[in-house]
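Worked example 4.2. Below are the chains of a multi-component assembly; read each line carefully before continuing.
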Amino acid sequence: MNIGTRKLLDRSFTAVGFTSIMLMALALLAVLVPIITGGIKALYFQGTVEHRTLLFNEFQRGDEAKLAVDAERSEAARKPVYEYLAAFDTELESLPFERKRALESEYHHVRDTLHELLGPLPGDTPPLLLRFQYGVTRWEKAEEELHNLLYMTKWDYSDPTKMATQYFAPRVDEFTGTSLEGLFGYVEEHLEEMLLPQPEFYWGFITDRSLDAHIFGGVWAEIQGTFYLAIGAMLFAFPLGVIAAIYFTEYAKDNYLTSMLRSANSTLAGVPSIVFGLFGLAFFINTMKVSESKSVLAGSLTLAIMILPTIIRAAEEAILSVPKTYREASLGLGATKWRTIMTVILPAALPGIITGGIISLGRAAGETAPIIFTAAVSVGATIGIADVFTEPTPALSWNIYNLASEHEAANEIRHVQYGMVMALISIVLLLNISAILLRARISQKLKG
Amino acid sequence: MKMFRKLLLAAAIFGFTAGPAHAGDAIVMDGSTTVGPIAKSFAAYFTKNYGVQVTVSESGSGNGAKSLINGACDIANMSRGMKDAEVAAAKSKGVDPVSHVVALDGIAVVLHPSNFVSALTVDQIRDIYTGKVTNWNKVGGPSAKIVVIQRESNSGTQDSFRSLVVGKKNPITKRAETQASNGAVKSRVASTPAAIGFIGLGFVDNSVKAISVNGVKPSIDTVKDGSYPVARPLFMVTNGQPTGNVKKLIELNRTADGKQMISELGYVNKY
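Applying the procedure described above to all two chains together yields the following structure tokens:
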């Protein structure tokens, strides 16, 4: 091969490598950008007076005097709306029966949408569920609701061979000539005064408990549960994994049994996580009865078994990569095998062992399947550390799934889902960064 | 290792201070996603008014039953009755399942709003689900291939739908797509113009169109008076007759507050 061809091949390989790295970076960006932009909305948004009232009533947070002023201002702006409704209520009674029936269902929609916007209207029975006790808490939702109030979504069914197309018709047309006619224009004009939106940094999303099944409030219980589960799994898996790795590399003889154990370990690393989840349910809860029902303990044990193979493999590699001369020098100085392992080999291998730990910790925090049956619940309070042996906990990974697919108001609380995803990613990142720093410090020490 | 230890310690202290210690008598509920909203609201109400912790998992009726049989939960939420096999399994483990009707629920058959079909008969729905009818123009709709959506076998809603509409013996068409929860079926139908699916009445909103079945619109009134054909009771199942707090929680649906919560959530009161 002449120099020219060689150079060309070399260059083209560089180009291919560079392109694939760029593609991966782009893919990562495509994943992260929506998560971050969506997640920020859970923390920073245009909050309405309803949100401030909610925070004050449920968490006693906020400036009471200022809230009272705001409440009075918004009440003043809402008053004409309530007057329109009261006037129309009396007018409705006086209408001929057929006209009344035609208007009633439309009027029902108007009242429902106004309830969504402003909270319970005068004359409504006070609702028990928190989600119905307040109007819209976020301004972007208010704009959607306003559109629902002003326009009816209709479908054009004129062509019976095709799917219909959507169009909007002004709702006010249904009410021309009635006392309600003025309401629509008024609400459109004065919505801002009724809700008084202002930019709000809701840090409580991280530290508050959830209210009414995550419709309001924060995700502290989930964050705490994720920490408990990930750290609990590490507490079991890390020491066990390192001990197993020491056995494999230092003590085990190179025979049939050892190679069987090794391949069993590799196989275990490839088992789907749901299998671990079912195993955890069958073994830890139903057979061993480590707890009466789901618990953090059972979940941690299940996760520990799941991450054990990774930890063993990483620790093994790390120990094997310690130069032979270290060992020989230590043994040559008269140290026992045990002492050599503890004072020479393990410290030298520690950075590599911790890398394995980091990867596993991130995986334990993010896995959903192993905890579905062993630890996670969709609604539950924050638990103290003394309760981890008996109590289940909500956890980010499972609750993200639960909110996105099973929650009855999944479409209304997209911001909570994104906020949870961002919290989970931040936790994993935080754990990784602190472990990377730790590893760097240890390497530094070893060199020095 | 110092920093790692510090980190662990910090996390531990975090947990200690953050979690309010509570009495050990927590109530554990597991099961149906359809009963889920009621269970979650009851749980929040109960914790607020009686200070008793209640945890709720939504893993499907089948898992709720298994959980009760294994003694892993106090109350199994079920959107169908206990099956004979489940009762037998429970008895063999010394568990005596007692079912309590918590509310009534209609199963709404939902279509995309762009589909102008607004009523079907039970027979037509059965034909769609068994695969006899594969195009909307056979049942008076536009010419479009029907996308059939069902629930997973663990679902109580699926079970009730099969016995009420399709018939236990008739197999559902192999082309049917399976979704894992009421919410998932709803969003699949809302994004697929030619889809048909079924969800609990409490989950219906204006992103999908609930159609009349045998000429009866699904609503609280028609479910209550029994005229809507695809309706079923929802259960909370306990081991033996409930006592103490569990009894109080189960009987919440007879109190004025409980009734109001059930109807605010869009379900139908039995009492």
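Take a moment to check your reading of the output against the notes. The longest strand of chain B covers residues 97-111. Chain B touches chain A through 67 residues (CB under 8 Å).
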